[in-house]
Design a protein that fits this description.
By secondary structure, the protein is of the alpha+beta class. Helices cover about 25% and strands about 35% of the residues. β1 and β2 form a beta hairpin.
Length: about 80
């Protein structure tokens, strides 16, 4: 149902000039067109609450998530 997600870190320098991960952008691709997925709106509204990794790292830095269907249409 999902292709491999892609996570891209955004590097920033802290107050001491040391490199740190300032944020992460995650791109998730669903292998079906959006119109074929039942309850898609409900799933998109809830899925981040259940993601262990997102909720764990979000307390340390922002995580930006993009969800696309198989046609490349951005769903969230």
């Amino acid at each position: 149902m999902f292709a491999d997600p892609v996570a891209r870190p955004r590097m920033e320098r802290n107050e001491k000039g040391r490199l740190r991960i300032g944020a992460v952008s995650v791109d998730i691709r669903i292998e079906s067109p959006a119109e074929m997925l039942v309850h898609l709106d409900r799933v998109l509204a809830q899925f981040e609450d259940f993601c262990i990794v997102t909720q764990s790292v979000r307390s340390g830095f922002p995580v930006e998530v993009t969800v696309r269907d198989s046609t490349g249409t951005i769903l969230k």
